[in-house]
Amino acid sequence: MAGLPGAARARSASPGSPPALDGSFLLSPLGGLMCAQAVLGLLVWSLIAATTYHLHAAYGWVMFVSLFFWILTLLFFVTYLLQLHQKFYMIPWPLVLMIYNAVATVLYLTAFVTCAAAVQPTSWRQWDYNRRAAASFFACVTMITYGVSTFFSFRAWKGLGSNAATSQVSDHA
């Protein structure tokens, strides 16, 4: 599990111990990217929610994608911050995180394209246009952060050159 914060402490954490904060996770690339995804995702769905999105079906999809992945990102963030992933060592967390980030990247791409295509510059409400345009921009930036997270998650899953299967077995044998 090279590349994931707290991987060196995985063997020392006992299943019955209480959750502890992992400060090194916040300084890791995955931790920083998860913080950025949470903030950017919050911007996307709050900007769309501040408009009359219910009148346009396209914005319902953008709201679903942004809110769904915002909640899941917060859950993954808390899981890694409290080192709960070490208590459930039988789950291949690097693989789960890589798949999650890849799916989020693809769905945020669809949300970004949908949001950008639905922005009408001739909107009768100027503030709706500004918020929707800003939401399109932030959806694009959020999609990029999920793409970068997919790259780092892939590297962690591959173990930076080691065999991922043997590293799973040797960590908890």
From TrEMBL:
InterPro entries given in the database record: MAL, Marvel, MARVEL-CKLF_proteins
Subcellular location: Apical cell membrane; Myelin membrane
Single Gene Ontology MF annotation: structural constituent of myelin sheath
Keywords: Cell membrane, Membrane, Transmembrane, Transmembrane helix
Membrane-spanning ranges: 25-48, 60-83, 95-121, 133-154
Predominant cellular place of this UniProt entry's protein: membrane
Residue ranges of every copy of the MARVEL domain listed in the record: 25-158
GO biological process terms on file: myelination
Membrane topology: Multi-pass membrane protein
This protein's GO CC annotations: apical plasma membrane; myelin sheath
Pfam families according to UniProt: MARVEL
Protein family: Belongs to the MAL family.
Subunit and partners: Forms oligomers.
Stated name of the protein: Plasmolipin
Gene of this entry: Pllp
